[in-house]
Amino acid sequence: MGWWSTVVEKIRPVTTPLLNIADDAGDGPVIILIHGIASSAATFKRLVPLLTDRYRCISIELLGFGDSPAPAHSTYTIEAHVAAIHHTIRSLHLTAPFVLVGHSLGSLLSARYAAVHPAHVSRLVLVSPPVYLSPTEMGDPRARWRLGAYMRAYEFMRENKEFTIGNVERIASLFQLNDVLEVSERNWTPFILSLQNCIESQTTVSDIASIRVPIDVIYGTLDQFLTPGTMSIIEQMRHVTTHRVELSDHLIRKRLAKAVAGVIN
């Protein structure tokens, strides 16, 4: 029976899973919030309370993270993530276009979602987007070196599981990320595949260029994961408005949360 089970598994249709809706609060026009890699809906804990007096805020947890399923068959490509997000949003039976807010990896996925499903999104808000070009496309040598350093660091994390998992708690404690950063045995496969397939390899600049709804890009001046060369390209697009938040890093802490809420409101 073993060989037959294998055959059945291979020909069985792969279903797109429903993701966990971690929070659904407030009344009014809908805002969908998508968090970043190795995180959860806790990313938005400082932002949501600033919006629920005017909006219905729905926080969705990504495939493989938070309390969402982590299918063994998933390759965690940007297409797989966006398909799961779309399937989950359809289950909500929304009747009007919504504001889509993404943070970090969630902003890359949100840009692809808006590019693929343009009728569903009324406005796109990208918070701390780690938008990267190929190093060969970077004209500035400093930006090219910085991007190369990011890619080497990401590759090192993927190829050194024990080191990455063993040090993530120290990193989380050092940067006050305890409630928004998790890399463990439980989500290791979603982490490394999402990192490789959605962040290291991406087409976000072309996705943003193809979108026709207004886009706000909000980022901190101390963000550790942004490359100035790429941000300058995005800033030149007519439908994009950028907002620099002084003394803010990659995470949605109090100052960045107020800025994002201000832009949305």
Automatic annotation (TrEMBL):
Which InterPro entries does the annotation name? AB_hydrolase_1, AB_hydrolase_fold, AB_hydrolase_sf
Q: Which stretch is the leader sequence?
A: none
Checking SUPFAM superfamilies in the record gives:
alpha/beta-Hydrolases
In what residue span(s) does the AB hydrolase-1 domain sit?
29-249
What GO cellular component entries does it have?
A: membrane
GO terms, molecular function: catalytic activity
Q: What is this protein called?
A: Pimeloyl-ACP methyl ester carboxylesterase
User: What's the source species for this entry?
Assistant: Salinibacterium xinjiangense
